[in-house]
Amino acid sequence: MILTLALTAPAMAIAPRLSWAGHSLPPEFRRQLEHDANAPIFGNPDGDATLIEFFDYNCQFCRAMMPVVDAVLGADPGLRMVMREWPVFGEGSVFAARAALASRKQGRYADFHRALMSQKPRAERASVLRVARSMGLDTQQLQRDMGGPEIAQHIQQSNALAEAMGLVGTPTFIAGSDSRFGAISSTELAELVAASRGN
User: Fold this and answer.
1) What's the CA gap between 197 and 40, in Å, rounded?
2) CB 145 within 8 A of CB 102
3) Rounded to two decimals, what is the model's pTM?
4) 172 three-state secondary structure
5) Is 83 helix (H, G, I), strand (E, B) or coil?
C-alpha cells in the first residue's frame, strides 16, 4: 500500500488532505512533529514557519524534490524544515536512513543527505558507503554510530507518526494542519508554508 502509492505517485500529485486537515493538531502531536530534538533541521532553526518532510532515499519523487526543497529554503529565511527519515522501500532504504542519521556525529548530515538524494544508483549498503567515502566520511565510525539508540528511535518515531496520520507514502510535506504528497512545484510548496503561518 505505502510502497505502491509512493512508487506510482505522478509528478505534481497532490495528497488528499489528511484526516486532521483544517483542524488544529493536538498540541502534543504538533510538538512531536515540529520539535523532536532527535530530528535533523534544515533552514532557520528559529524560523517562524515549520515544514516537515517524510522521505526515503529510494523514492524517485523524493529525489526529484530535493532541488525544489532547496529553492524554497533559499527563498524563505524564516523557514525551519524538519527532516523525517521514513524508510519504506526495504533494507537499502533502512541502511541509508541509519547512515544519514549517523552522519550527524561527524557534522555532515546536510551534505550526506543531498549526496544520497543526488545519486543515480539505488541506495543500498555498497552505494551508501561509496557516497560516504567520496565525501571523506569515516565509514567505520559511521557504521558504529548507526547502531546508536537515537537512530532507531528516530525511525520508530517516523513510523509511529506516519501511521497515526495515515500517511500514504513519500514524499509527504506537512505545514500547519495541511499536507501534500508527491512531487509538487516550488510555488505550491511555498504556498503550503505561507498558509501555515496563519495557523
Assistant:
1) 21
2) yes
3) 0.87
4) strand
5) strand
